[in-house]
Specification:
Blueprint (H helix, E strand, L loop, with lengths): L2 H11 L9 H15 L7 H8 L5 H9 L3 H14 L1
Helix pairs in contact: 2-3
Length: 84
């Protein structure tokens, strides 16, 4: 049996993969945080969230997220506390 044939058989019996993120739930969370931040008319939800978290630019927030900066988690926790 060829490699392609074996691969096809394995793919057929493998369980279907599930998405890692529920897109609908993620969209609701983003909308909630943007509303909490008081999103302006010309501001994207992500820009509003960055402002809520105290970042001057969107780039600062994405860098903090990518590099798993401890300050990002603290800012997120503070924003969540304000919401409750």
């Amino acid at each position: 049996m060829t490699l392609k044939g074996r691969l096809s058989k394995l793919e057929a019996i493998a369980p279907q993969s599930l998405p890692a993120v529920d897109r609908g739930l993620l969209a609701l969370k983003v909308r909630f945080m943007a509303e909490l931040a008081g999103q302006g008319p010309k501001e994207s939800p992500v820009e509003a969230i960055a402002r809520l978290l105290g970042y001057n630019t969107l780039r600062q927030m994405t860098d903090a997220m990518r590099h798993e900066c401890p300050g990002f988690q603290e800012r997120w926790a503070n924003a969540a506390r304000k919401a409750s």
